[in-house]
Write a structure and sequence with these properties.
The complex is a heterotetramer, with two copies of chain A (290 residues) and two copies of chain B (571 residues). Chain A is of the alpha/beta class and 290 residues long. Chain A has ten helices and ten strands. Chain A is 31% helix and 16% strand. Classes of the chains: A alpha/beta (290), B alpha/beta (571). Chains in contact: A-B, A-C, A-D, B-C, B-D, C-D. The complex binds thiamine diphosphate (2 copies), iron/sulfur cluster (2 copies) and magnesium ion (MG) (2 copies).
């Protein structure tokens, strides 16, 4: 098809996020990255979770499946296994990905299926109106923890690295160019690529604000001393910086995606093919049962 | 006994090769032309603990265990104790000499064979069970040559020594037991039968249907489906994704179904419970997906190695809200092979989840199957648009409720699939009129299934004194009971094959004439009976036979219950 | 209209303070002595999108929305368009001048008040809605002083300026609308009523029952229970554990129930689906635990902000296998307060999971409640042994099926609780006789509930021409419809309070005389009706009124359906 | 009560594991640790998962609850919240804990409830007869992966550290003394304490054998250069050693357990107390609803 433009990835619907919500920036950067990578809307599938963040699929003119809370990653695996020619993106919130979806996150990372995972991390449950999320700060008062949360926060970058992810990056909703670049690099990666995006919730989270991030974030892309090539160094760096970094944190250049590594698995899409066995093939299989 | 059949059993401790030995016996019996039905007793543990493997040989198809064990090979004393109540009078018990002195052996009679000693003489205790097989062949009058041929074929890759040792064992066991009286079966012409479990048949049927992807998590008694598929599918470009749990398994399957692949998952009760939310997503987003539930005794972890049919209500009503599902239950491996294919056709035609409800007995016990009875169904891939027009709306409200879909990758076919209520376009909508239209569209889709040609499998229901109704593996025992009963009364049988939508009208018609109806189920609350009530079928003449103690329901128990019911009605 | 009632509504965009304004209006109405029923229209989004808040004031208790809106405050044009079909003839529409020209307003009549301009004059657009409240007071003839008192009390902590601005807004709105004709209600003596939602009542009832622990995961429309509990419980030494998902929530609750605490979890449909496996564990291991399900429109994510009663089958039959559950459904906040306590008593007495089935309408809409009607129930902690004797067997087979338990920490009371089938001792057992004994023990436990005194709430069923049957929040609309119908026919009502075990005998008796029965449910498959069929209740004279488009079922719709049915029967 | 002995913690039942199974060693070490810590059987609760490993509860004479697959940790949290005077141990297999239970594992670690978690890690699914588990080696052939698994293995120690666990140790079933000591230290720790135990499955896992471990394991307790006090150093060490270590890996001396940190939460057990509100208390609460 002809070159795609931003317009090709837009839908008629107006995004319903609160004015100022960080998710607008994620949407914009995602659309830019898709255009920059030259993928076609009909060959893109977005698997979205439940949350304010999960609405993002409604605003991208691609194939979309909006699954149940917490299950974007297994659904994305299914889509990719069915049709490996598609670009498959899983997107969702921090509650979706790191609370109810935590198990899938760790396993997707180690499985290394060629799926891109973008988390819109606002450190809060937006859609259910402001309860604490796994990434909320310790001490943060929310509707469910009026006297302050007492749990240590989940550190998504550290966890992803510990789980074996082959591509780990973090962006900030306001840093559009970097974010679009990181999502583009994730798309280009051969394997599971994880981009955590700090995306402020202006309505329910008064701690993790734009201003806070602008002050606190350390940019690894701009840090000449840092090279995103060693898992050990990456873990040490994100732990040192308390996850407050942006940029490409780690990329395994040797990554072989799950669907390529699976012995015997077809190199063509399963979807759209008729693969009924012939009577002879069935008879052949039955030989093993005599 | 209406059919000439013999039941052979070998029992011992888990980890002592009982399974492998049973397989040898069953396979050779099948090769000899007999119809074979096997069943196993086993526990949720790896080594130790009693187990037995029962092989029923018959000259007509049998689909249930017999009332009595005719020949018992006992590797432990516990085997004799446990099988006592089932031993036929004078039934030979092939056992090591050590057992001779230990009473009681009930109606049985110990045929003492020094199994262990002979094996030691041959040089390996591994062939002990083979000595017993040789002895069994003698007692049953089965030709040893066929056992020898089996050993030569299957053990060849283990080397000549192994083959020789096993042949030796067979022969010495045979020699020692020659002359011992035992039940004899008329010889049969060697047949072209295969031995299949329902789990084998489902895996093969799915492959035959073009399914190349399975996402699952291991659980007894469904794991074999996954293992068989993992073995075979890669030969045809397919794969098994072993997921981290059942939540992931069902959602991965939904993703693949959405993307256009024939995909399945398989589980048992606990996994079905975990999949309920995902199944609802498939109903709402209209995604074809196949879930196999191989039932086991519940609730909760229950008795993982025991048969039960107690997930019926959960399969139909288990999801929150009101999502459309189709539930079918095969009774035999042949049906399981066909139903795996049918299930994909139904899922893709009606764009909804299909649950294939199997059970432990059907799933893991081998039976002989005539390969000719493994029928290939033409694939119905449902309504898929290769070139959607500009007005394409995924959930378009059609007369028959089926809305053509596009698959990802199709130009101009982009849409949003979602578990949220949506407008025809797929976009989220809370409009009341739209809600009503979409709910009724989804419900309407399944109406034609009321008239499915194979929803019920009827036998002799017209003018019957009594009709026996059941589903799943229980149907085998029901058929045998009916055959026995038919000697004295007019008896009909109904196998409910399509459990949901329940074909109420057809069922009503089938039961109309019956003087009394006995609904036979392996559960404790009468789930099929309850369903029949929902469908308006009940009244004084409908009765239940329930069985849920973990043992297999036998034909003689059904026959007895039916006789009691008939006697009561006659008063 | 049988009762003198007025329905006021304010509508606008989400995030514009509609909720807060509705609360002011409802609270003042309650203080003025009116019975108040509120309802809301809202969407799964945070800001933007239409919302409205409706307050019904009446001189008798009302538990449902009225047929017509009598006064509408419209902050957006969309508000008028959306409420058009409900607007009574000549109903005043209080709106900014801008709306005057925009047709149509249907039967309504715009009372133009420059809400925004006045607010700007006062110095903050935040008081715009308060101008509308003042105008509403004028139109309805409600004393402004009570609104002023409310503002002085509740806004005091926001500072004197805020109080003054709001008072100003009230007055100016009042002044401008004075003389506008509107529906008037007779004044009432100020009453001691509180405004409660069902969710409030459940949280308070649980605290009152001695529950100090809740393990939950947020979900609309159940989240408030958790938030209220998180606010209040720490004052009494309690806590909310916000878990990572519903699987964790139910299992944490089971752990706590096993250890002897009164504990609950609360969720809505999707969470209920995820909890099915855990609930089965509680059934099998005989652990008391309380699950609140505040139903919303399904299946799957469905319509999270819309009312429905479609989890009934899943609550009863949703688990694999056949586990014992008790399901009760309150209809009002008073009942919710009592039922939270009752549920703990039932859970501990019968040692099984109890599901308190609420719904969105009951859960999140405020209603006036007489504090005297919030009854404290004595606690029944069930049979707990403080000093077990040597023969202690946790699942001892007793006549009534209830086996005394020990709590961890009790010397010599150690035992194994498990989801696997077990012997009386608790040890895992696969013995068939034991299986039968344990299954029937667990089933037997719940038999006395067939005779529960408050399983059904009956009104006028004897000799009725028509009986209206329902459960949950629908009962309010049913009662009002019955009152209206009673002017022309003999009408009875049945609220099924204990849904499971369904009190079949009691229901049979209650419906025996009725010439016709109308089962009224807010779902699309008639789940209660299906249950009644399972219990053997059906036949020609039973009919269904189903409603599942996401709107609230109104009394007038029930009345009309009953009239149609009566007319048909009369032919 | 009088001093407890090993006998007090034994049941009449004979453990049914296959001869040679590593789980025998875990059972023995656990019983020794309980005795050494001087806890009473009736004040001990074992929450066991589903698997060969999960049978362990049957052989310890304490209160036991055998939950559904994967849910030991939330159940243990519930028990502890209900009665904080109890010693609460969660035990299960690697499939139970790191596949279906992964989400709970990460969250229990960050929540820091005072529960002890012992995983009997045999790198295989034993009870279901030999499918690969998250800790199976890449390339390992199992019944579910006849041509070899293609997924990176879960590294439980690294993950626990990344998740914020305040006590992390690894034992080996054959090293009884060390294992008993580690479990004892876990019991003494104030907060969530995680002990991964390498416990060979002699029936289904032919790779991760006793011999293999005896050769491969590096003992940190005996490594004078290693001090288990820095999370960063701990992560670096276990990553360097590919998780093939034994000993105490990390312990946070400042750890405050969840149940102590929760504002307002009672210091006495909830269980066994009657806490119905008086009519006055109810009336007081209603004041907020007028
Ligand atoms: C099984 C289930 N549990 C709970 C919910 C309710 N729910 C909807 S969104 C959400 C969390 C939202 O937080 P997050 O994922 O961070 O997304 P955000 O809204 O912040 O973008 C929850 C708990 C649900 N839909 N399904
Ligand atoms: C929900 C659910 N899914 C699956 C199973 C089946 N199952 C029982 S044990 C087990 C895994 C066993 O592996 P592991 O946890 O490592 O324990 P091991 O037997 O190796 O000690 C599985 C998958 C189950 N009981 N419940
Ligand atoms: S609530 Fe927060 S996350 Fe949700 S749309 Fe508003 S700002 Fe964004
Ligand atoms: S199968 Fe493995 S883990 Fe299970 S008891 Fe046997 S050796 Fe132990
Ligand atoms: Mg969030
Ligand atoms: Mg294991």
């Amino acid at each position: 098809m002809a070159t795609v433009t931003l317009q090709d990835f837009r839908t008629a619907e107006k995004a319903w996020w609160c004015p100022g919500c960080g998710d607008f920036g994620v949407l914009a950067a995602l659309q830019k990255a898709l255009v920059a990578q030259g993928v076609a809307p009909h060959e893109t599938v977005i698997v979205a979770g439940i949350g304010c963040s999960g609405k993002i699929g409604n605003y991208v003119n691609s194939y979309n499946i909006h699954v149940v809370h917490g299950r974007t990653l297994p659904a994305a695996l299914g889509v990719k296994m069915a049709n490996r020619d598609l670009l498959v993106l899983a997107v969702g919130g921090d509650g979706d990905g790191y609370a109810i979806g935590m198990g899938h996150f760790v396993h997707a990372a180690r499985r290394n299926i060629n799926v891109k995972y973008i988390v819109m991390d606002n450190h809060i449950y937006g859609l259910t109106k402001g309860q604490n999320s796994p990434t909320s700060d310790r001490g943060q008062a929310t509707k469910a923890t009026p006297l302050g949360s007492v749990e240590a926060s989940v550190r998504p970058l550290t966890l992803a690295l510990a789980a074996g992810a082959t591509f780990v990056a973090q962006g900030f909703s306001s840093y559009q160019d970097q974010l679009a670049r990181l999502i583009g690099a994730a798309i280009a990666h051969k394997g599971f690529a994880f981009v955590n995006v700090l995306s402020p919730c202006v309505t329910y989270n008064k701690l993790d604000t734009y201003d806070f991030y602008k002050q606190a974030l350390h940019d690894l892309d701009g840090d000449a001393a840092y090279r995103p090539e060693s898992r050990a160094a990456a873990v040490a760096k994100v732990m040192e910086k308390d996850d407050l970094v942006t940029g490409l944190i780690y990329k395994d250049p040797e990554s072989v995606p799950y669907e390529d590594a699976l012995p015997g698995f077809a190199r063509e899409p399963l979807a759209g093919r008729e693969m009924q066995l012939s009577p002879e093939e069935v008879a052949g299989l039955l030989a093993g049962y005599r | 006994m209406h059919a000439s059949s013999v039941e052979w059993r070998i029992g011992g401790d888990q980890g002592e090769g009982i399974d492998a030995t049973g397989d040898v016996f069953a396979t050779v019996a099948a090769r000899l032309g007999y119809h074979v039905y096997t069943s196993k007793f086993f526990s949720s543990r790896i080594k130790g603990g009693h187990t037995h493997y029962t092989v029923r040989l018959a000259d007509v198809p049998v689909r249930a265990p017999a009332a009595r064990v005719d020949v018992l090979v006992a590797l432990t004393q516990e085997t004799i104790v446990r099988s006592l109540p089932e031993l036929g009078p004078g039934a030979p018990i092939i056992a090591d000499a050590a057992f001779r002195s230990e009473a009681p052996v009930g109606g049985g009679r110990v045929v003492s064979v020094p199994l262990t000693a002979i094996a030691r003489e041959i040089g390996t205790t591994l062939v002990r069970n083979m000595v017993a097989v040789g002895a069994s062949a003698a007692v049953l009058g089965l030709p040893l040559s066929e056992f020898a041929r089996y050993v030569e074929e299957k053990f060849a890759r283990k080397g000549a020594t192994t083959v020789r040792q096993n042949l030796d064992a067979l022969e010495r066991g045979h020699r020692l037991a020659m002359g011992e009286a035992g039940p004899a079966l008329p010889p049969r012409a060697p047949g072209d039968r295969v031995l299949l479990t329902g789990n084998d048949a489902v895996a093969l049927g799915a492959l035959a249907a073009g399914c190349r992807l399975m996402a699952a998590y291991p659980i007894t008694p469904a794991t074999d489906i996954m293992e068989t598929f993992a073995d075979l599918a890669p030969k045809f470009g397919g794969a098994v994704c072993q997921m981290e749990d059942e939540l992931a398994a069902i959602t991965a399957a939904i993703g693949a179904g959405y993307a256009g692949a024939r995909v399945m998952t398989a589980t048992s009760g606990p996994g079905l419970s975990l999949m309920q939310e995902g199944i609802g997503l498939a109903s709402m987003a209209e995604v074809p997906v196949l879930i196999i539930d191989v039932q086991r005794a519940g609730p909760s972890t229950g008795m993982p190695t025991k048969n039960e049919q107690s997930d019926l209500m959960a399969a139909i009503f288990g999801g929150h809200g009101e999502g459309e599902r189709i539930v079918i239950a095969p009774a035999t491996p042949e049906e399981a092979f066909a139903d795996a294919q049918l299930a994909f056709n139904l899922a893709e035609r009606y764009q909804c989840p299909v649950i294939l409800l199997s059970d432990l007995a059907l799933g893991v016990f081998q039976q002989t199957v005539n390969p000719g009875a493994l029928v290939s169904l033409p694939a119905d891939r449902g309504q898929v648009l290769a070139a959607p027009d500009a007005g394409f709306a995924r959930h378009h409200v059609t007369d028959d409720g089926i809305s053509p879909r596009t698959l990802p990758g199709t130009p101009l076919g982009q849409y949003l699939a979602t578990g949220v209520e949506h407008a025809p376009s797929g976009k989220v909508s809370e409009d009341p009129a739209n809600r009503t239209a979409q709910v009724s569209k989804r419900q309407r889709k399944l109406l034609p299934l009321q008239a499915s040609a194979d929803a019920l499998r009827l036998e002799g229901t017209v003018g019957a004194d009594i009709v026996l109704v059941g589903f799943g593996s229980t149907s085998g025992a029901i058929a045998e009971a009916a055959a026995a009963l038919s000697e004295s009364v007019r008896v009909g049988t109904v196998q409910v094959h399509q459990l949901w939508p329940l074909p109420a009208g057809q069922l009503q018609k089938a039961l109309r004439d019956a003087r009394s109806v006995l609904v036979v189920e392996q559960n404790s609350t009468g789930e099929l009976r309850q369903l029949m009530r929902v469908a308006g079928l009940d009244g004084q003449r409908v009765h239940s036979l329930l069985h849920s103690d973990g043992t297999l329901l036998r034909p003689d128990a059904i026959e007895a219950a039916a006789q009691r019911l008939l006697a009561r009605e006659a008063v």
